[in-house]
Design a protein that fits this description.
Length: 217
Amino acid sequence: MLDKTGIAKRIAQEVQDGYYVNLGIGIPTLVANYVRDDIQVEFQSENGVLGMGPFPFEGEEDADIINAGKQTITTLPGASFFDSALSFSMIRGQHVDLTILGAMEVAENGDIANWKIPGRMVKGMGGAMDLVSSAENIIVAMMHTNKHGDSKLLKQCSLPLTGVGCVKKIVTNLAVLEVTEQGFKLLERAPGVSVEHIQEATEGKLIVVGNIPEMKI
C-alpha cells in the first residue's frame, strides 16, 4: 500500500518530456519533486506561475513565491510570473498537456467531484472547473477510500460534480486504474495489495484482465 509520497512518485512516471503540467492542491503538488532529471517539464500553477520546481528546503522559503495551494515553492531558470487572466488563457486554450488533480470522488464513467462537501464552507471552486473542462489528459491522485473505509471510486458521485466524463486515469494508495467506457480498468496494484483487496475497496465496476502487475516505484 502506498502513502501520499508513493502516489506522487507513481504519477511522476506519467509525465513525459516536453509536457506542460498543471498540479492541483494536495498530493499532486508532490509530483514536481519526483519527475526524472533527464526530461524537460514545465509545471504551471493557475495563480500565475510557469516553471515551478521542487519544494524549497527548510530555511530557504520565499513567502512571495507560492503555488495555488499557498505553499511555498521554488522556480527553475526561465520561470515566469503573470496574472490570472493569462494563466487561465493557457488553461482554457488547452495549452496544458497534463492536469493532475486530487478528488473526493470519481465515478466509473470519469465524473469527478473535488471542490465541495455540502454543509461545509468553501471559498469557491477555484480553477478546478476550468481545468477539467479544458484538459484532455486528467490524472487523479487520491486515497482509494475515505477515513470511514468507504470507497471513493463509485458507480455515481454523490457530491457536487466538478466535471463530467473527464478523468482518464486514477492513482490511489491501492492501484492504478484507467477509466473506460465499461468502468475502472485495473492496470497495476500497489506493492503488497491483492486484487481482491482492490475489488472490495471499489464500489464502481472494476475490470480485471489477466495477471495484474505490482507498481514499480
